[in-house]
Design brief:
Blueprint (H helix, E strand, L loop, with lengths): L4 H17 L2 E3 L17 E4 L6 H4 L2 E7 L2 E10 L3 H16 L3 E4 L10 E13 L2 E13 L4 E12 L5 H24 L8
Parallel strand pairs: 1-4, 2-5, 2-6
Antiparallel strand pairs: 3-4, 6-7, 7-8
């Protein structure tokens, strides 16, 4: 099979255009190490998948272009679905802060977890050079009794960590870690950490 010079040029041009049009993909950085773990009132904690607003569930990264105006950026995408990656980040951050074993729901063990955490996000938006605003509510439930252990609203603001979408991804990770600080302190019966 032979290629004519014109066909080869067309194929190379198409490949170049395809490469130029593909988005960059961004991961959340790993949770920061913690100096000590807080004593948990239970040995096991489950975390439900985080409930996100529609714009925050998109694979394209949402940014706030003006107050109340959002844009999904076609040139920048999350490397994993936001709901899954934020939930997994929260699990890792809680396990780094508590003496309990922490896992995603559905709980993998035969026995039910001691406590279950549900997070509903009202707002999760920022920009590559603007603060990230993260607000909503978390509820901690004892699955065996159905008793609500805690129900708290949260409002977290994280300054841009670095320039560009790498900094925005780092801000998302830090916001989840600050939420984990709050949840862990509440479980351990400590004062909520200062924002």
């Amino acid at each position: 099979m032979t290629f004519r010079p014109g066909h080869l040029f067309a194929a190379l041009s198409l490949l170049a255009l395809t490469a130029c049009g593909s988005p960059d993909y961004y991961l959340l950085p790993a949770p920061q190490a913690q100096p000590a773990r807080l004593a948990s009132p239970v040995s096991t904690v489950s975390v439900a998948e985080i409930s996100l607003p529609a714009y925050a569930e998109a694979i394209e990264i949402a940014t706030e272009t003006a107050p109340g105006t959002l844009k999904l950026d076609g040139s920048a995408s999350w490397a994993d679905t936001p709901r899954r990656s934020l939930t997994r980040h929260l699990i890792a951050a809680l396990e780094a802060r508590l003496t309990a074993k922490v896992a995603a729901e559905p709980w993998p063990g035969f026995d039910r977890p001691g406590l279950s955490v549900e997070v509903t996000v009202d707002r999760l938006i920022g920009g590559p050079e603007t603060p990230l605003v993260f607000s909503g509510q978390y509820v901690i439930v004892a699955p065996d009794s159905g008793r609500i252990f805690a129900s708290e609203r949260f409002a977290i603001s994280v300054p841009a960590q670095n320039a560009g979408f790498t900094g925005l991804a780092a801000a998302h990770a830090l916001a989840i870690e600050r939420l984990a600080d709050d949840i862990a302190a509440r479980m351990a019966g400590r004062a909520r950490p200062a924002a």
